[in-house]
Amino acid sequence: MLWLLYGSNGWIGERCREILQMAGQKVVSGKRITSLKDVEDDVVTHKPDRVICAIGRTYGDTIPNIDYLEKPGILEINLRDNLLAPLYIAQATTQGANLLSSIPTLYFGSGCIYEYSDPNNLSHPFEETDPPNFFGSAYSAVKSATDQLINGYPHVLNADSSWITLEFDFYFSSARIRMPIYDDPSPRDFITKILGYRKITSLPNSMTVMSDILPLLLALTHEGKFGGRVNACNKGWVDHDWILKKYAEKTGEKLDYVLEPINEQKERLAARRSNNTLSTDKLDHWTKILPFETKKLYYAPIVLPELTKSIEDICAQRALMFSTTDSTVTRNLLVTGGCGFIGSNFINHWLKKYPNDTVINIDRLDPCSNSENIDTSVSTKYKLVAASINNKDLVLHLMKQYQVTHLVHFAGSCHETATLNPTNPYAATKAAAEFLVKSYGESFKLNYVRNDNI
């Protein structure tokens, strides 16, 4: 399947490309959009099966947040990137004179379009059908308009919608992202941002852990049967103070910040900030009915993850990342074939003996493997990735994401009828692997332990 990606150089766009390539999809970048014709030309040239709009403007110059959009003369940029570009994409991918059928499209919108009269009254999480009621910033005002207009294009998944509408045979999804959190620290990561603030206004909010939600949104778009707005957030809510306390607890870092009432924050900032909780019932329902094979293709979660659990895991990961480099303290293991007989025994032993170590198990779950061979009750640091190690991009991604310190390789097919015959493929590949690993040991001084039959 060919995906046309707009905003491919942004934080969300880069991660979309990475996940799509791991799933074996072809990705092409769209040109810079200045008019409807730019998108129409891209569609004619590339003939995409799916389109993604990850275009948006939230900062600029030396201002790292939406206060940038309050500056004089910036309205044109705000309208161009946050309103016109998404609408051009929606129009160009709609069934019409140039298209026999609409192209399923994913648009990354914003959930920062609501507020409560009492910010601590959470009796009504905002649903996809609720009209925007927060216009306290130039960013939110324009995104609110885009949200309403995009809803007129049923083929767009606004990763912000009404329930699935099966009478349409094309879908535009609008995904409402809120306060995005990434696995790794970065300038656009919400945790990284608030760690840099001295004054914190702590209020309940829905949030989006991108490693949970992004694969799910891409899987929904791949399926091509989901459209409209959807609140693209994890289940539940947290406040800023809870995150900072959890981070300090996991990392041992002493944080220096003070809590600031919202009325004082309003006086200090150029633009007001939206604080709200969003209903995730719709995304939860979509997650449940999305076919398992599509979830597996994109490594999407089986159920909608809880926000508190995901944030705790990320804080624990960062604690390992920033901890001492002495590998005798904590290790991050990538184990291949860990659901087989030998691999599962190794993992069970390791988790019990070293419960603070992180163990990532990648196994394609052949009939001879069973995920239930692993006793996960002894450690919270275990993660199973159901995939083949032939997926090089995925393996490299896992090694980078989890800062892997040790690799333990058990994956292999040994179910041969005559394994002692030296001419069979099993023996031949094992012999080749033996010489390859030995050469790495001699040439690059790679430390390795041989555990093989003869």
Characterise this structure.
This protein is an alpha/beta fold. The protein folds into three domains: 2-322, Rossmann fold (3-Layer(aba) Sandwich), CATH 3.40.50.720; 332-409, NAD(P)-binding Rossmann-like Domain (Rossmann fold, 3-Layer(aba) Sandwich), CATH 3.40.50.720; 418-453, no CATH class. The chain contains 14 helices and 13 strands. It has helices at residues 11-22, 36-46, 75-92, 138-150, 190-195, 210-223, 240-251, 262-268, 281-289, 292-298, 307-322, 341-353, 392-401, 425-444; strands spanning 2-6, 26-29, 50-53, 105-110, 155-158, 172-177, 199-200, 228-231, 258-259, 332-336, 358-363, 382-386, 406-409. Strands 1, 2, 3, 4, 5, 6 and 8 form a seven-stranded parallel beta sheet that branches. Helix 1 (11-22) links the parallel strand 1 (2-6) and strand 2 (26-29). Helix 1 (11-22) packs across helix 13 (392-401). The longest helix is centred in the last third of the chain and has 20 residues, at 425-444. The two termini are 44 Å apart. The model is unreliable at 161-170 and 415-420 (pLDDT under 50).
